[in-house]
């Protein structure tokens, strides 16, 4: 997928060196197609790293994607320059009158706080409410997934006995789910969190389907019945060394962290970590973009509204694919 981003975004040169098709702004203006409009609410402190990770995964499809980065206006980021935010980011107020084919809400290192204690919680609630009528489908990641489950369905997060950190095997619960089309019987997702959502709490909500599970990490992929809201509790977007960097950071903080599980060969932290989730990361994002964004979104985004129901284009009404 050609990614349409500003020519001078730091991720641009990194992705170009990886042979990812980065569409220059001038070239995009001369293509007679409507790109998919994807907004990314980037709540991670390492914004440039997260930008690159997500853009890399959004690139694996023949469709053109136009990305708009958002950040909370109600919070001053301490890990990225103000000039970077001014040049490459917008706020909710800037886009509140716009409509998007898709929205990604990232994780954030605030999970030990009650939701209402997070500085930008009210603004995030406004964005999630706005998404009901202005976005075809929203992908929530890690804390973003917990925040979405709480806001939309009242599901509380719960504290784990210790930090869940590692790469865990998962299995699909719906073999014919289009989001997981092409997935193996066992696949791996990295997790890095102190809290979780109880499976029983999710199962009580009639509008939610659990699509993938882990014996250790729990319900890892959930979705609303109409697939306008997707929740992923792990971090498929993580690079090979992301858990390593977080582990070393926690050591420096004196947190005495456990070695991430199923990650370092032989649990030897001096060895290069295994990268066991990359292919399924590309696949999940490609499936989300294809089935739940491109095939569901109206050509005219003005048709989006609160009661909009995506159609399964190219599929019969009796199909059991979901």
Topology:
Elements: E1 3-4, H1 10-17, E2 22-23, H2 25-29, E3 36-41, H3 47-58, E4 65-70, H4 82-88, E5 89-90, H5 92-95, E6 100-105, H6 121-134, E7 135-141, H7 143-153, E8 158-172, E9 187-196, H8 199-203, E10 208-214, E11 218-224, E12 229-232, H9 242-252, H10 278-294
Parallel strand pairs: 1-2, 1-4, 3-4, 3-6, 4-5, 6-7, 7-12
Antiparallel strand pairs: 8-9, 8-10, 10-11, 11-12
Helix pairs in contact: 1-3
What is the CATH topology of the domain at 3-156 and 193-235 and 278-302? Rossmann fold
Termini separation (Å)? 24 Å
Largest beta-sheet details: 12 strands, mixed
Structural class: alpha/beta
Short description:
The chain has 322 residues and is α/β, with parallel strands linked by helices. The protein has ten helices and twelve strands. A hairpin with a 4-residue loop joins strand 11 and strand 12 (229-232).
Your description of this structure?
The protein is α/β, with parallel strands linked by helices and 322 residues long. It contains 10 helices and 12 strands. The protein has helices spanning 10-17, 25-29, 47-58, 82-88, 92-95, 121-134, 143-153, 199-203, 242-252, 278-294; strands at residues 3-4, 22-23, 36-41, 65-70, 89-90, 100-105, 135-141, 158-172, 187-196, 208-214, 218-224, 229-232. Strands 1, 2, 3, 4, 5, 6, 7, 8, 9, 10, 11 and 12 form a 12-stranded mixed sheet that branches. The chain is globular and about 55 Å long.
